[in-house]
């Protein structure tokens, strides 16, 4: 890799990191509060980073998001549930890292198979978004079934339907948004990087 390309990649990685930090700390730029939950739009930055720079850098940006989520669960939670759920790094950090990994590898693989780059980016973005949603909700179900009454004022038997409702109301709109926005931003950036 030429020095100019390396410098450009580092500059883009720093830019995406700065955007993640801003989205985490400026109200409504990363999380849109909806009752006890928050609609997340930070995943778009991680997905765009993964599409533009690759899975490794996408994982780094996702890891930064996850680390901030973990720290915020203790000092400035985004929702009442964050103080219970996101204090576990497997729920707060791992899914965010995997957003970048999945989006980056899927895009890298599909862009070699398909001539339609927008379609490859769209599929990668949707799968990256769903990675976060399914891993977070799946781990909430796995690790916190016994805390369902405390967390959701639900009995344990109603936890799974509640989480499926969150998937329908948050996860699917987030995935659709990612499929529309991420390719629209990432593909022009790729042309700038000439990748």
UniProtKB/TrEMBL annotation:
<dbReference type="Pfam" id="PF12822">
    <property type="entry name" value="ECF_trnsprt"/>
</dbReference>
<keyword id="KW-0812">Transmembrane</keyword>
<dbReference type="InterPro" id="IPR024529">
    <property type="entry name" value="ECF_trnsprt_substrate-spec"/>
</dbReference>
<feature type="transmembrane region" description="Helical">
    <location>
        <begin position="37"/>
        <end position="53"/>
    </location>
</feature>
<dbReference type="GO" id="GO:0022857">
    <property type="term" value="F:transmembrane transporter activity"/>
</dbReference>
<keyword id="KW-0472">Membrane</keyword>
<feature type="transmembrane region" description="Helical">
    <location>
        <begin position="12"/>
        <end position="31"/>
    </location>
</feature>
<feature type="transmembrane region" description="Helical">
    <location>
        <begin position="119"/>
        <end position="142"/>
    </location>
</feature>
<feature type="transmembrane region" description="Helical">
    <location>
        <begin position="81"/>
        <end position="107"/>
    </location>
</feature>
<protein>
    <recommendedName>
        <fullName>Integral membrane protein</fullName>
    </recommendedName>
</protein>
<feature type="transmembrane region" description="Helical">
    <location>
        <begin position="162"/>
        <end position="190"/>
    </location>
</feature>
<feature type="transmembrane region" description="Helical">
    <location>
        <begin position="58"/>
        <end position="75"/>
    </location>
</feature>
<keyword id="KW-1133">Transmembrane helix</keyword>
